[in-house]
Amino acid sequence: MLCGPKGSEQNSLLQCSICGRETQLEELPGRREKYCLQCSADMATSILLVDEIDAATMDGRDAEKLVEEFALLSSRMLERSQSAEG
């Protein structure tokens, strides 16, 4: 089976920038890194959470629940990253 653009022999499976899995990767706008589907979803969510936390803080609204959600998400991503190393 030929892989890559226009039938080239180049392998289209690369390593995820977070978990290190070799799989088809996704690109997020404005990011150079590429991620597997699961990590790209978490990364996109973390970007949105940071924006919402910043907006809430600037508006003087309570952001505690958003910060808690961000912490859980960050822990999950860190755990996935560390499991890839070992």
Short description:
The chain is mostly helical. The protein is built from two helices and four strands. The strands form two sheets. A two-stranded antiparallel sheet has the order 1-2.
What attributes does this structure have?
single chain; 86 residues; 9% strand; two-stranded antiparallel sheet; 2 helices; two-stranded antiparallel ribbon; mainly alpha
What does this structure look like?
The chain has 86 residues and is mainly alpha-helical. It has one domain. Helices cover 52% and strands 9% of the residues. The chain has helices at 37-59, 64-85, and strands at residues 14-15, 22-23, 26-27, 34-35. The protein has a two-stranded antiparallel ribbon. A hairpin with a 6-residue loop joins strand 3 (26-27) and strand 4 (34-35). The longest helix has 23 residues, at 37-59. It is elongated.
User: Main sheet, how many strands, which sense, barrel?
Assistant: 2 strands, antiparallel
Task: Summarize the amount of helix as a percent range.
Answer: 40-55%
Strand content: 5-15%
Radius of gyration: 17 Å
What string gives the helices and strands in order? EEEEHH
